[in-house]
Write a structure and sequence with these properties.
Length: 484
């Protein structure tokens, strides 16, 4: 019997809050850095003292334009700021400076990959605003504490159209957005530190219907594991409510990760509940075509462009290209290595199989790998030219190179007696010794068991201590095996 939920479609829209990596806050000079003792990154301006005036952070505008260009948005030439009024203990001014009427970016889209399927998620708009402080309810049993270090930190809010249909798609969108803001160098995207959070608007409707159901907003989800659980619970709650004859009420919800349950915070507000009005202390910001173009020309290569480059110009597989473009530092490191060698696939293998595990264990950036790129390229060339086996290179030479970064791979390989040889006399002697020692295997091979070639090659490599060049020894071995 099928689950009743199979008869429903989930509809999800996101409001993604990206905390920007500027040095100062959105409208004052207070430090915007994460951490610090509670209530130390503050000033009369961020505390909203009477008589203080905000001053716009230029970097916040540049970062917003950068993100809009990356998403194909239309950049608004005239930007205004508004006050969003509500009372909460971690909002010291009693209002939040945001953009309501004229946000900085309109439209755009982001391509996501979900279960090997590409999907375009439309962007409704992106606006600039400031963050609130942080309420802490677990420090004392008798009171909640307020840390205002985060109050005024610059944010971009990315509002999507209701194009997402599952937790998997939400996960893919957030992961892709995190990668993008890191490539753009506008945010570290660390959800665990609150640098990236999302509010999830969830509704359900019967399959085939075109009208949207009543949505509920789940606030401040700062991990994809929590987001998945919250969406799954909320979808089931709404379906069960509808099936029982009830109606979904538009609400703002909180998700408790301990119980896995969403609970109402308040009735869902509309714009008029916030009493938006233009901020009288901030004049409009006019962005000229020349300014927007100046931001565009400084844009870095983005992951999609690098992925296409790695697939076409470097000839990598889909898997390798996707893995190498997952992080900007890895992609740039791979490109730097490729400047020293034409063997791109071998370079990709080295980065994926050796450099990345080292980085994860050492907790250092790829470019801090102890062997310089020119020496890694020389090792790859030794392998490609048949002078060094893959096994000897990765198991013996590379560890030695990490301990002796100043020595060349050729010198180290020579001192470790790792270099392979194509000397015909030496190889002929080794082949003869192996064939003489295994007459039964030779007889079986000549009777049709051609798979024994691998056995003979293994014995030759063992006897030569890895010094026999497989490309040189293979024809010699076959010649002697096929001789009658």
């Amino acid at each position: 019997m099928s689950d009743i939920s199979d008869q429903y479609e989930t509809v999800i829209g996101l409001e993604v809050h990206v905390q920007l990596s500027t040095r100062s806050k959105a409208f004052c000079a207070d430090a915007a850095a994460f951490g610090g003792a509670p209530n130390t990154h503050i000033s009369p301006i961020s505390l909203g003292h009477p008589g203080t005036l905000p001053m716009l952070n230029r970097e916040q505008v540049a970062y917003a334009v950068r993100l809009g260009l990356a998403l194909g948005s239309r950049i608004n030439s005239v930007n205004t700021f508004d006050r969003k009024n509500y009372f909460y203990a971690d909002l010291p001014k009693g209002y939040q400076i945001t953009q309501d009427r004229q946000p900085v970016c309109i439209g755009g889209a982001m391509d996501i990959l979900v279960n090997d399927r590409h999907k375009s998620v439309r962007i409704h708009h992106i606006h600039m605003e400031e963050d609130a402080g942080k309420s802490m309810h677990d420090q004392r049993p008798d009171a909640s504490l307020i840390d205002l270090n985060r109050a005024g930190v610059p944010l971009l809010e990315i509002v999507t159209e209701p194009d997402l249909r599952s937790p998997d798609e939400v996960d893919a969108f957030m992961s892709t957005m995190r990668r993008l803001v890191r490539y753009l160098d506008i945010s570290d995207g660390n959800m665990e530190q609150g640098s990236m959070r999302c509010d999830v608007n969830v509704s359900v409707r019967r399959k085939g219907e075109t009208a949207f159901g009543t949505r509920c907003e789940i606030k401040n989800l700062n991990s994809m594991r929590f987001a998945r659980r919250a969406i799954a619970y909320e979808v089931r709650r709404q379906i069960d409510l509808i099936e029982a004859g009830g109606t979904v009420t538009q609400q703002t919800l909180n998700f408790d990760p301990d119980t896995g349950v969403t609970t109402p915070l308040r009735s869902k507000e509309d714009a008029h509940d916030y009493r938006y009005f233009p901020d009288p202390d901030l004049p409009p910001v006019v962005l000229s075509d020349g300014y927007i173009e100046s931001v565009r020309v400084q844009m870095p290569l983005l992951p999609d462009a690098l992925y296409r480059m790695f697939r076409t110009d470097y000839g990598l597989s889909d898997y390798d290209a996707a893995l190498l473009t997952e992080e900007k530092a890895v992609a740039l490191y791979f490109m730097d290595l490729c400047r020293h060698t034409p063997h791109f696939k071998a370079t990709a293998n080295l980065v994926i199989n050796k450099i990345l595990p080292w980085r994860d264990e050492a907790k250092q950036a790829p470019e801090q790998f102890p062997v310089p790129p020119v020496h890694l390229a020389e090792m790859i060339e030794l392998i490609a030219s048949g002078k060094l086996s893959n096994t000897a290179a990765y198991q013996q030479l590379l560890p030695a190179m990490m301990e002796n970064a100043a020595q060349t791979p050729s010198a180290l390989a020579q001192s470790l007696n790792l270099l392979q040889t194509g000397d015909a006399d030496f190889l002929a002697q080794i082949v003869d010794e192996v064939l003489v020692a295994n007459p039964d295997k030779v007889s079986a091979y000549r009777k049709g068991k051609k798979g024994l070639q691998g056995f003979f090659m293994g014995e030759i490599m063992r006897l030569s201590k890895g010094k026999a060049d497989p490309k040189a020894v293979t024809p010699l071995l076959l010649q002697k095996l096929d001789a009658v």
